[in-house]
Design brief:
Layout lengths: L12 E2 L2 E2 H9 L9 E5 L5 H10 L2 E5 L4 H11 L4 E4 L9 H11 L6 E3 L13 E4 H10 L3 H5 L3 H4 L7 E3 L18 H14 L8 H10 L23 E6 L20 H7 L3 E7 L3 H10 L4 E3 L2 H8 L3 E4 L6 H11 L3 E4 L7 H14 L2 E4 L7 H11 L6 E9 L5 H13 L2 E8 L12 E7 L4 E7 L7 E7 L2 E6 L4 E9 L7 E5 L11 H15 L7 H19 L5 E2 L13
Parallel strand pairs: 3-4, 6-8, 9-10, 9-12, 10-11, 12-13, 13-14, 15-18
Antiparallel strand pairs: 1-2, 5-7, 6-7, 15-19, 16-17, 16-23, 17-18, 19-20, 20-21, 21-22
Helix pairs in contact: 3-5, 10-17, 12-13, 13-14, 14-18, 16-18
């Protein structure tokens, strides 16, 4: 009730009924909601809300005026709610088809936080957010920031490295983020009232599609509040970084076109979802890609020449998503243009000499160089590295890995992960695999890596035309742990007394010692990059880490081309040029 721009708006009359009553009526039509609870304040001005709740026979909890997070959390606990489906009293046009779709998505167990406005595609006023009471309990313990206390789930979606985030995008017919259906000012109330007056008498359960159809037929209605802009909650005093991307191919922009992908998989997708980043420009040699992805990600700056982009756009962060042969030149031009950070795809370069030049140039200019070896950004992989270092599974006996898609392309990720988990390598051996790679210039190689700690890891490659694979299996004294589905899924079997043989010990399914990751590697990478810029520290996957992975790729290719002999690490020298998509 205490709105400064429109006092008393929650109970403002629409068709002679309080706006909040109309919202509750719509929420009660949900097939999947168990109960509706109003979380209001202890301010005497909100006594009328409690009276309305009593008349409508819905739950009502009264709590802090300013600490909205605590109020919602205590309301959830008071009514034994495991899942919180949050909307606000100024969104009376909420669509229950969207709410039920979000609840069904959340029930898959793939998310810690799910909403339809992480990426703003729906009209403003259809916003719904879902998160577990347990997650909000954790947030309550982690932050005392007043902004996080005012905006209930802000901390969750500001930390994609910690929580598995999901977004429901609007279908084409509802893709109208420019339309305001929320009530924040008198003009908003006038538009929402007109919608109710025209649609409710014929169908009290009218949908968002009905609203858009009405507004299409009566476009002058949008003039009522068309001058008002959508409000977005962003981080307060901390600066926003200007990001740009060179290369609008798969990892730059294209992977997110795949409707089956449940996670953000591109640099562009991660930047537009980061509250600390503004994606200001794209560069690519293909005008069609610039138009397509400029429109998709609402980026105005579009350039055929990345050097012109660097001159014009005052870029803070540059993502390099081109072939590895161009990485050195682009990095050198970016450093000269004054960028603060380079986020480079792997392999970091096409040769060790080029990688050394990139590392040296960035260091001399004070530019942060981060390589996209994605699993280092993920909390589960970091937990696993710590667990192995502390030998909580006992001594590791054997490691076997499977990959597809070329030794430089996906094998590069595998070499970096092995180094992250087990330390530096002493030598490698390899032979060209009989299972072909999709890129003849980047063959599949089978082989082994001997680490300085004595561990031997076996690498087996597969034909990606049959299936894609990226797996790592660790057999240790106390159990067997497997990373599957490209590092998204973790499986564990503990060692205990055999149920079949008295003299044996065997493996049996058990709870993994690490929590499965969110799979949001790109979101986590961007969040980590911003954290490094703000705190002035080096990333978990630096230019030097990228170079070490490239060195292992170079060494195993050198072994394969020379009959499979051992190649010592570090390499004494190598002029080999590595090819990768």
């Amino acid at each position: 009730m205490g709105s400064s721009r429109l006092p008393g708006k929650t109970l403002a009359p629409i068709m002679g009924r309080p706006m909040l009553e109309l919202l509750i009526e719509r929420l009660r039509r949900s097939r999947l909601l168990d109960q509706v609870v109003i979380a209001t304040t202890v301010d005497p001005a909100d006594d009328a809300i409690e009276e309305l709740a009593g008349r409508l026979r819905v739950g009502c909890f009264r709590g802090s005026v300013d600490n909205v997070l605590e109020r919602v959390l205590h309301a959830a606990r008071a009514y034994d709610a495991d899942l919180i489906v949050e909307t606000t009293g100024d969104n009376p046009l909420i669509d229950l088809e969207i709410v039920d779709q979000l609840i069904a998505m959340f029930s898959s167990g793939s998310y810690d936080y799910l909403s339809n406005d992480l990426e703003e595609t729906f009209p403003d006023g259809l916003n719904t957010k879902l998160f577990l009471t347990g997650t909000l309990t954790e947030v309550n313990d982690l932050t005392q920031d007043p902004r996080h206390r005012e905006h209930v789930s802000l901390y969750i979606y500001e930390h994609p490295e910690r929580y598995r985030l999901g977004n429901l995008a609007a279908p084409p017919e509802l893709h109208h983020p420019e339309i305001r259906l929320t009530v924040d000012r008198a003009e908003d109330l006038a538009l929402v009232t007109r919608v109710f007056e025209n649609l409710y008498p014929q169908n009290a359960a009218f949908s968002a599609r009905d609203i858009i159809r009405f507004l299409d037929e009566h476009p002058r209605s949008l003039e009522i509040n068309g001058h008002l802009r959508r409000q977005t909650v962003r981080r307060g005093a901390e600066r926003t970084y200007r990001a740009a991307i060179v290369g609008c191919g798969r990892i730059g922009c294209g992977f997110d076109d795949d409707p089956r992908r449940k996670h953000v998989s591109t640099h562009a997708g991660a930047y537009v979802r980061s509250p600390a980043v503004e994606l200001v420009a794209l560069a690519d040699l293909d005008p069609a890609k610039l138009e397509r992805y400029g429109n998709k990600f609402q980026v105005q700056g579009r350039y055929l020449d990345y050097r012109e982009m660097l001159r014009r756009e005052a870029v803070d962060i540059l993502s390099i998503c081109t072939g590895s042969a161009s990485h050195r030149q682009i990095t050198e031009n970016a450093v000269a243009a004054g960028v603060k950070a380079v986020f480079c795809e792997k392999p970091v370069a096409d040769s060790l000499k080029a990688a050394d030049a990139m590392i040296r140039g960035c260091a001399q200019a004070g530019v942060l160089l981060m390589v996209d070896c994605q699993r280092r950004f993920d909390g589960m992989h970091r937990q696993l590295a710590q667990l192995l270092r502390e030998e909580r599974l006992g001594r590791v006996q054997q490691v076997t890995c499977y990959y597809s898609g070329g030794v430089a392309n996906n094998g590069g990720h595998l070499f970096d992960l092995l180094r992250f988990l087990f330390g530096e390598a002493a030598w490698v051996q390899g032979i060209v695999s009989g299972n072909p790679s999709p890129d003849p210039d980047d063959p599949n190689v089978d082989g082994c890596v001997k680490f300085n700690n004595g561990l031997l890891a076996m690498l087996q490659s597969c034909d990606s035309s049959l299936f894609s694979v990226f797996e790592l299996n660790i057999l240790a004294a106390r159990g067997r742990l497997a990373l599957r589905r490209f590092g998204i899924e973790v499986q564990f079997e503990e060692v205990r007394q055999s149920e079949e043989f008295s003299e044996d010990r065997d493996f049996y399914p058990a709870t993994p010692p690490v929590k499965a990751g969110s799979g949001e590697f790109m979101l986590q990478g961007v969040a980590h990059l911003i954290e490094c810029l703000r705190q002035g520290r080096q990333p978990v996957c630096s230019g030097e880490d990228g170079r070490r992975a490239l060195e292992l790729v170079t060494a195993i290719l050198q072994s394969a081309r020379n009959g499979g002999g051992r190649v010592a690490i570090p390499l004494a020298s190598s002029s080999m040029v590595i090819h990768s998509r």
